[in-house]
Design a protein that fits this description.
5 strands, globular
Length: 140
Amino acid sequence: MLDYENNTIPIRALVVDDEKPIIEMLDSILSTFGIQDIYIAYNGEEGLNMFNKHSPDIVITDYYMPIMDGVELYKAIKIARPEIPVIFFTGQEKKVAARLEIDGLKPDYIVSKVFLRIEMIADIFKECFPDYNFTELKFS
């Protein structure tokens, strides 16, 4: 959980996935971390619109989605704001990396839906936001 006494600006996160149960799970995980500003989109195009409207600090996206997939969303985000970390949360890790490699790109982070460990997401947030004072997260 974030220690808001020492952090003056909350982290804004955008979660993009076409599966409502995944969205709900990620929303719950991020809330556990103390993230209060969580924006939700159900496809890449909607995600890009939310990105432009809310200017999040971090994006978590699926790969396969209707209208615009996660790789196209990643490219658009990196053109607009290359400093924003993007986490691919997918069951298609190798396909994401291969698609990006074609364009000479490398993913910021990939977390497997199949082998999810919440600690992995927590570690990524700690790495992306080192100035925030995260308290130890306990998982049962």
